[in-house]
Design brief:
The protein contains twelve helices and no strands. By secondary structure, the chain is mainly α. Helix 1 packs across helix 2, helix 3 packs parallel to helix 10 and helix 7 packs parallel to helix 12.
Length: about 250
Amino acid sequence: MKKELQIFLTAMMFFTRIPCPKWVNHDAEFLKQSSKYFSLIGIIVGIIGALSFYFSVLIFPVEIAILCSMLATIYATGAFHEDGFADVCDGLGGGWTKTKILLIMKDSRLGTYGAAGLILILAFKFFALRTMPVTHIPLAIICGHSLSRFIATTLIYTHPYVRDTDDSKAKPAAKTISRGMLLLNACFGVAPLLCFNTPWVFLTLLPCYLSKVFLGAKFKKWLGGQTGDCAGAVQQFSEIVFYLSLLVLWKFIL
């Protein structure tokens, strides 16, 4: 039990900026297993965003409340996955060889492709949430964060880690994931969907996974596998796909 608690807190420390006890560190052995709680961390981050929206909308218009929610989740994670998405945009947009793409992705500077990608992904998130029924937004935020992180773990499971250096902080968490860890992520990632009280919502799993297949094919073609940035990009992209899929369900089915 103590070991599992330390693994969970290591995941919390690695994937978020939420304060953890001082005895928790970035031990490589625990980091290797921290991905098993990736979807659970998504639920926690989603709850932070949902609560931010819930209390903000009591005072401010819906648009400002959504921005407060987005700000809260970005602050809670330190823009961890947004940074990965921007790096992937810069790498695939500006590089033509595996070596060049990986070099660009490791560069801490933000390029044109990364800036454009961030603007578009945040805009999609804002307008997708704004179009939803206000009462459903908090639950959609929680589900979006948990499910998208599960989808990201499927990339780690199906695609090999391709960086051959040991100085990447994401390497232990992004290198491998077992079938059992993937199953645990599936449970945490999908469970919040049950709160919608309709089986139709599980149809969103298909487009979300297809978004991973789409990006995974690009990563396979250009990199031969994935990196931590790639997993972050899948998380961001599949989160947007989930929101858009919900809108389609509400329009044609629900």
